[in-house]
C-alpha cells in the first residue's frame, strides 16, 4: 500500500494552521511557523500577552484609525478602519520566541499574509522566505513591494486547503 505523503509546503502550512487553533481571537486566528531547511524551529499564534485577559475573556480592544487609500482611478480616499490592539500578532510572537541565529536564511509559514507592521519586522529578522495562505488585501501591494526590495521570496501557497476545523 502506498501512502500519500504531503509536500513540505503543505506540511508546514498545516502546522501553522494547527498553531492558529491556540488563538482566542474572535476576529482572526493566525498561526506562524519558523523553518530552517526542513527543520521546524518554532511556532506561534496571535493573542494577548501571557497572563493578560484575551479578547475571548475581556472583549476586543478596538481602535479606530483613518487611512489614506489611492483608488484604481488614482483618486485618494480616506477610509475609517477598526483594529484590535489587545493581541500580539503571530509573526511578532514568532520573532519574540525564536533566536536571530535560527532565523538567518529561514522560511516563515503564516496562515495569513503579514500586515505592514509584521512585514517590516520580518524584513529585518533574517528570514529569506515568507509563505502565506490567505491574502490580506489591505497591505498587499506595499508588503509585496517591501519584500521585493529586501530580496525576500514572498509567495502565496495557491490551491492549499487548510486542515478541517482550522480555517
Automatic annotation (TrEMBL):
BP-aspect Gene Ontology terms: pyrimidine nucleotide metabolic process
Annotated keywords: Hydrolase, Metal-binding, Zinc
Family: Belongs to the cytidine and deoxycytidylate deaminase family.
Cofactors named for this entry: Zn(2+)
Any coiled-coil regions, as ranges: none
Zinc found in the keyword field: yes
Keyword Iron: no
Active site residues of this protein: 91 (proton donor)
Record: residues binding Zn(2+): 89, 115, 118
Domain of life: Bacteria
Protein name, per record: Deaminase
Any one GO molecular-function label of the UniProt entry: dCMP deaminase activity
